[in-house]
UniProtKB/TrEMBL annotation:
The keyword Glycoprotein does not apply. Residues 44-224 form the tRNA(Ile)-lysidine/2-thiocytidine synthase N-terminal domain. The N-terminal region contains the highly conserved SGGXDS motif, predicted to be a P-loop motif involved in ATP binding. One of its GO terms (molecular function) is ATP binding. This is tRNA(Ile)-lysidine synthase. The keyword Cytoplasm applies. Belongs to the tRNA(Ile)-lysidine synthase family. GO terms for cellular component: cytoplasm. It comes from the Bacteria. PANTHER family: TRNA(ILE)-LYSIDINE SYNTHASE-RELATED. InterPro entries: Rossmann-like_a/b/a_fold (IPR014729), TilS/TtcA_N (IPR011063), tRNA_Ile_lys_synt (IPR012094), tRNA_Ile_lys_synt_N (IPR012795).
Length: 339
């Protein structure tokens, strides 16, 4: 059974100990100044599992939203995978009630969903979770879906991207804000230990998910076996990842703005490519391909495309995932999706 709730939970920022009020204001500063979130009068839907991350997120958003005349809602999804999950759902609803935060609890048979969709359980759970969050966000009229990913999660994500062979700036980790999916990650540069201390000092309980220790899942192996080795070799590894994330966001924003200067449509004109550095051309190709829908443009294929353009192999066609093609023509490069 989850631990009991405290007799009372601070209702406002002013009721917090100064240390934790300052912490909450730091999260607000990250949202506003680094992620560009307008807090005034906005509503957040929190993905609330009842664990450390989402419990801390729920409370911090409550404090900073109310001072900005906004609102916070919670959605708890019971995946139906563990015997203790109904108790955790009840505890999540009880905590939200004690914190005066509206909460919706939904139970889904994720194992059955995984079978019907032909996915693994982890992937199916993620698919169901995000679909429900977006549906609830629309119903509530909230502007943002808030996720509890923190700096430790960012470090794991960077290592997993390294294992997959990601390039720059993707290797710098998950975005802090994803406008296309209405997602925001307020804790992305906050260590998990800070969240634990925050809840401990407020005497607010959280649930422990035993599956987080199951090393059959790659993310758990990275968390428990690989990441500690990096930290052992470099005690400042998490800080280094945070700096790399910031540099990655700057580069990503620069290239996005640079690519916005290209003419829209399937043709990447010769005049845009001539005189451009290879790094620019590679970004231009990727920008055009990404705009065509799903399918990751792999670096090796981008290099082949650039070689074909430099050698002016008119008529050469390079294939990309998602049934995308790039064809060298006298006017430049034409990008298509095969139908």
């Amino acid at each position: 059974m989850p631990p009991p709730l405290p007799e009372s939970i601070p209702a406002t920022l002013q009721e917090l100990p100064p240390k934790w009020a300052h912490f909450c204001l730091g999260v607000e500063s990250f949202l506003v100044n680094e992620l560009g979130v307008d807090m005034e009068g906005k509503a957040f839907l929190t993905a609330f599992s009842g664990g450390i991350d989402s419990t801390a997120l729920l409370l911090v958003l409550k404090y900073i939203s109310r001072r900005n005349h906004g609102h916070v809602f919670a959605l708890h999804l019971d995946h139906g995978l563990r015997a203790e999950s109904p108790d955790e759902a009840a505890a999540a609803v009880a905590l939200c009630k004690a914190a005066d935060i509206p909460c919706t609890a939904i139970r889904r048979d994720v194992q059955a969903e995984a079978l019907s969709m032909g996915m693994g359980i982890e992937e199916a759970g993620r698919h169901v979770r995000y679909a429900l969050l977006e549906r609830e966000r629309e119903k509530l009229g909230a502007q943002h879906i808030a996720l509890g990913h923190h700096l430790d999660d960012l470090c794991e994500d960077v290592l997993m991207r390294m294992l997959r062979g990601a390039g720059w700036p993707g290797i710098s980790g998950m975005p802090g804000i994803d406008p296309d999916r209405n997602l925001v990650r307020p804790f992305l540069l906050t260590p998990k230990s800070t969240l634990r201390d925050f809840l401990h000092d407020l005497r607010v309980p959280w649930s422990q998910d035993a599956s987080n220790a199951d090393q059959r899942w790659k993310r758990n192996r990275v968390r428990h076996s690989i990441l500690p080795l990096f930290v052992e070799e470099n005690q400042s590894f998490t800080s280094s990842v945070a700096r790399m994330w910031r540099m990655g966001r700057l580069d990503d924003d620069f290239w996005f703005r640079r690519c916005q200067m290209l003419q829209p449509g399937p043709l990447l004109a010769q005049h845009a490519l001539e005189g451009a550095h290879q790094a620019e051309r590679m970004r231009f190709y990727k920008h055009k391909l990404d705009a065509m829908g799903p399918g990751q443009a792999l670096a090796d294929s981008l290099f082949r495309l650039d070689a074909a353009w430099r050698e002016q192999r008119i008529g050469a066609v390079i294939q990309f995932p998602g049934d995308k093609t790039a064809k060298i023509v006298s006017e430049g490069v034409v990008f298509r999706v095969k139908h």
